[in-house]
UniProtKB/TrEMBL annotation, chain B:
InterPro entries: Bact_TGase-like, Papain-like_cys_pep_sf, TgpA-like_C, TgpA_N, Transglutaminase-like
Membrane-crossing segments per the record: 53-73, 79-98, 105-123, 129-147, 159-181, 546-568
Keyword Ion transport: no
Name of the molecule in the record: DUF3488 domain-containing protein
Cited PANTHER family: PROTEIN-GLUTAMINE GAMMA-GLUTAMYLTRANSFERASE (PTHR42736)
Keyword Kinase included in the entry's annotation: no
Domain Transglutaminase-like span(s) in chain numbering: 397-468
Length: 319, 663
């Protein structure tokens, strides 16, 4: 066990030196490893049987076929290596996901000159996914990965392998494209004790239930960052320009999602906060977020929502 | 690990083709139901692929296997042995097609296919089958490639082309291995195909057997002499002696490999014989032959015999002493055997022998009188003798007087023995056609011959040929001349090229094909331990072991290096074509004094260049736009378009702007 771990550590260090992490990697002879696959070993066994038949029957043609297939095996080493060599891999980002969903990481495969057939990408023990890259073309691959905990999901070194053309040999590499994707906490619905956002002393323990219809105050000009849901489409269709409906209640009484005000363990609280961040954003209601290590002032809009979710995802974790 | 468990279309179609190609060379010795089985299974598999039929379930599979096994037993009489084994292998190869679901099953099928190709070589070894089998091998490899391709993406033809390309690239290495891989003797003995119907001499002879042989133009052996071959009339190739006569047939008596008593005399003849498989153990040689090949013995009747039957072409060296004296004395049991006759029958011949014995007390004179009698009386040499009933020798000698070598030799030995002279029939071949190169002689089945040797108390065994007295042209010119009048030469094979020897070009073609066949046998089929050793010594000198290893390493290394260069083109590495062209673009602008600054993006560099060179701005922007599209927008622009755009820029620019000249 210890030996194995020691070996693993050495192997990782060696890989680190051999294939340093980079967002763009080109596979070459330093980075491609190649060994016979299981099929290749079986093929070797079959060749030995054929050789025995050739020797015992003193049959030159059987010798010939055995040697031909043996040479094919050797020549295939070059072909299999060639199928990976020159392939460029580039990290192409990935959208954040909620815990429990499949994370989707994008990798762009680029061919320099030749075609790359049946290239498999993935993180074992997850099943690999297979792609073909046309000559001088590119292929955008979406690799999915299950999420197990919130925070940055760093899947580690990506395995790239191919057995093309004959399946007798497997060429592979482990590349670190510095791929990462943010995993938000899993949103769990529940009741939320609200606190007012304006640093007021009086904290009304009031349950926020449903979306109350607030007083319509008037229209103002559209500014970037305003939600499209509040656009006054009727005015727009009359040619009065882009106007936004302004609600008095939203400016007057801001909500504060406070971590400290909740019960339960950290993850439960984060999940609940996550649910309410989504819920309030969907309802176009401004809110503030207060976490023990950070405070986000009340705001509204997608950028605010994402910032809050990011805070929730990374709460308590070293970034 | 394979992409998806199913079998892609390209792989399946090539597997179906491969099966047909693998089975074709076996058709000659497979029962006909195999073809029907294949058709049925192929159809079934296609229907499964089109979702119109189901895979067989376990019960159906077991029933199919049992039926196949039973059918093999029915047509071969047993389930073990090579012939039955091959049929079983082919049947398994076919049945596997139907139950093939996963890629792993398909691989098993492909490996089985390679084995079936190998078994075809046990039945036939000509250059034709060797070339033909490249086809099934290429298709099997194409099926392997198809299995590695994702889903339906792989198209059949490119797959086959790739397989053919890989095979072509493997060919030099294969030749290297073929020549240099050390050959050894069989590790253990294996069953050999038994249904190869071989024509040739057998251990007993009745006249009909020789008549049978004279209808075949099959090659028996080829002898290559160190010097000029002796004249045709002296080429008596001994295969064996027939000493026992039962009244109808002459057959071989048990001959122990005892020490024989003979003296070398005169000039020896040195030659090598490349013999076709005969499934018999005896070799062919001129008298008196010596051979120091391993496993070859000289028996007490001066024939050469090998330990094992000759089941593949065999090359052996012989030294013959034509004037040697054989057996100056015979032991009583040898005498008894050389005088053996049936106790009754052939009364007229026995009577004639008694008369001869009285008239010629000297054995030599008696023999001469018998030969002279064949010459004097109206004997006719014919391949269509009348049927002889009881007392065949009497009828032949005194009534019909029509026959060929076997009749004459048998009758003469009978008469000599009846007259008290030890004698026996020698069976073998006589003559042979001069082959290409003037030093070779090709002997075919129709050269089969039987002659006589008798024992003289002072001079040992002496060969005489009664046929020569009747038809000297048979000995001096060959069978074709001897039977020219009755047109019976190869009358059952109207298309044999040997019948058309009088047409010059046809004969040339035939001789060229013979030469090819000879070379094939000599250099390919016969390339085993002894020949390899000889070649190594000629090529690499006496102590060749380490030089051999060196030659293999250097040869293989050079070949693989060259192939790697060809496949990987490392000189084109590093940059893709667009980037190479962009580097060229930068060089062109550098000549105008415009250098790309460190950290300057391709686009801003192009913008700067366009500002600096307003006259060429259009061309610069055109190239830059294409380059951006290729590299960043993910649009694929053919390199030729980029190259063309660069060429236009170069034309638009003066060679070097005055006053700005870069270095």
């Amino acid at each position: 066990m210890i030996l194995e771990r020691l070996f693993q550590a050495r192997w990782q260090r060696w890989l680190e030196r051999r294939i340093p992490p980079a967002s763009r990697v080109r596979l070459d002879n330093r980075r491609v490893f190649i060994l016979p696959s299981r099929v290749g070993l079986a093929f070797g066994g079959a060749l030995i049987l054929m050789l025995l038949a050739a020797i015992n029957y003193q049959n030159s043609l059987a010798y010939g076929l055995t040697f031909l297939l043996g040479s094919v095996f050797i020549v295939t080493i070059l072909h299999t290596y060639r199928n990976l060599a020159g392939l460029g891999l580039q990290a192409a980002g990935g959208a954040p996901v909620f815990l429990g969903e499949q994370a989707c990481l994008r990798v762009r495969l680029q061919s320099e000159a030749r075609e790359h057939r049946s290239v498999a990408l993935g993180w074992p023990p997850q099943p690999l996914q297979w792609f073909d890259v046309a000559a001088q073309g590119a292929c955008d691959c979406e690799l999915s990965l299950p999420t197990r905990r919130r925070g940055w999901l760093r899947p580690g070194r990506l395995r790239v392998e191919s057995c093309f053309p004959l399946g007798l040999l497997r060429a592979w590499s482990w590349v670190d494209l510095e791929l990462k994707v943010l995993v938000y906490p899993k949103p769990i619905p529940g009741d939320l004790p609200l606190s007012s956002g304006h640093s007021d002393e009086e904290e009304e323990g009031q349950a926020a239930r449903g979306r109350g219809v607030d007083d319509f105050q008037g229209l103002r000009d559209f500014q970037p960052g305003d939600s499209r849901r509040r656009l006054h489409w009727k005015a727009f269709s009359k040619g009065q320009g882009l106007l936004v409906k302004d609600f008095a209640a939203l400016t007057g009484r801001d909500l504060c999602l406070d971590f400290e005000a909740l019960g339960g363990d950290v993850e439960q609280r984060l999940s609940l906060l996550c649910h309410w961040v989504l819920e309030l954003s969907r309802g176009e209601r401004p809110f503030a977020l207060r976490l023990p290590d950070a405070q986000l002032p009340a705001d509204i809009g997608d950028a605010h929502r994402d910032a809050c979710l990011r805070r929730l995802a990374l709460y308590g974790l070293v970034e | 690990m394979t992409p998806t468990p199913g079998i892609p279309r390209a792989a399946l179609s090539w597997l179906l083709v491969a099966q047909a190609l693998v089975i074709v060379p076996h058709l000659g010795h497979l029962p006909i139901w195999i073809v029907l089985l294949w058709l049925g299974c192929a159809l079934w598999r296609i229907q499964i692929f089109r979702m119109r039929a189901a895979y067989p379930n376990a019960l159906v599979k077991i029933v199919l296997m049992l039926i196949a096994g039973f059918a093999v037993y029915q047509s071969r009489g047993r389930l073990i042995g090579l012939d039955a084994g091959v049929v079983l292998l082919v049947a398994a190869f076919i049945l596997k097609l139907v139950e093939m679901r996963s890629r792993r099953d398909a691989l098993v099928l492909i490996f089985l296919g390679f084995f079936v190709v190998v078994t075809a070589y046990l039945f036939e070894t000509g250059p034709g089958i060797a070339l033909f089998s490249l086809l099934p091998v290429a298709v099997l490899l194409a099926a392997m490639i198809g299995l590695q391709s994702e889903g339906q993406a792989a198209k059949p033809w490119p797959t086959l082309r790739l397989a053919g390309g890989i095979m072509l690239q493997a060919l030099p290495l294969m030749l290297l291995l073929f020549v240099f891989f050390p050959r050894m003797g069989p590790l253990w003995s294996l069953p050999t195909p038994s249904d190869r119907g071989k024509t040739g001499l057998s251990e007993s002879m009745s006249p009909n057997d020789i008549a049978e042989l004279s209808r075949s133009d099959e090659l028996v052996f080829r002898a290559t002499f160190a010097g000029t071959p002796p004249p045709r009339a002296e080429l008596y190739w001994r295969a064996m002696t027939l000493e026992h006569f039962d009244g109808r047939r002459w057959s071989q008596a048990a001959t122990p490999a005892s020490r024989v008593d003979w003296q070398k005399r005169g000039e020896p003849l040195r030659y090598s014989v490349l013999m076709q498989p005969s499934e018999q153990a005896w070799l062919f040689a001129l008298d008196v032959a010596e051979s120091d090949e391993a496993g070859v013995y000289r028996m007490s009747d001066y024939r050469l015999q090998r330990e094992r039957p000759i089941d593949r072409p065999l090359l052996y060296d012989v030294i013959s002493w034509p004037e040697a004296v054989r057996d100056s004395s015979l032991s009583p049991w040898q005498l008894r055997r050389a005088l053996q006759l049936p106790s009754q029958g052939e009364a007229r011949s026995r009577l004639w022998a008694q008369q001869l014995r009285k008239a010629y007390p000297e054995p030599e004179a008696l023999v001469n009188e018998v030969l002279a009698n064949f010459n004097r009386e109206p004997f006719v040499y014919t391949l269509r003798p009348p049927v002889l009933g009881e007392n065949a020798i009497d009828t032949f000698l005194f009534d019909t007087r029509r026959g060929f070598c076997a009749h004459y030799a048998g009758a003469m030995v009978f008469v000599l023995r009846a007259a008290g002279i030890p004698a026996r029939v020698v069976a073998g071949y006589q003559g042979g056609e001069p082959g290409p190169g003037a030093r070779t002689v090709q002997v075919r089945q129709f050269d089969a011959h039987a002659w006589v040797e008798y024992w003289h108390p002072q001079r040992g065994w002496i060969s005489v040929d009664p046929t020569f007295q009747v038809a000297p042209e048979r000995i001096e010119l060959g069978l074709e001349a001897a039977v020219a009048e009755e047109q019976s030469f190869l009358e059952d094979s109207p298309f044999s090229p040997l019948r058309y020897r009088q047409y010059g070009w046809l004969n040339q073609l035939r001789l060229a094909l013979d030469e090819l066949d000879h070379g094939w046998q000599n250099w390919v089929l016969n390339y085993q331990a002894t020949q390899q050793q000889g070649l190594f010594e000629r090529l690499l000198g006496k102590d060749f072991q380490w030089r051999l290893v060196l030659a293999l390493l250097i040869g293989g290394g050079l070949f693989l290096g060259a192939l790697a260069l060809l496949l990987l083109k490392p000189w084109r590495d590093g940059l893709d074509p667009a980037q190479r062209l962009h580097a060229q673009f930068e060089r062109i602008l550098a000549r105008q004094g415009l250098r790309r600054l460190p950290g300057e993006g391709a686009r801003s560099f192009a913008d700067r260049a366009a500002r600096e060179l307003p006259a060429q701005a259009a061309q610069i922007r055109a190239f830059s736009g294409l380059y951006q599209a290729q590299c960043y927008a993910g649009r694929s622009v053919a390199p030729s378009v980029l190259r063309h755009s660069l060429k236009r820029l170069r034309r638009a620019l003066p060679w070097r702007l005055p006053g700005r000249g870069g270095k």
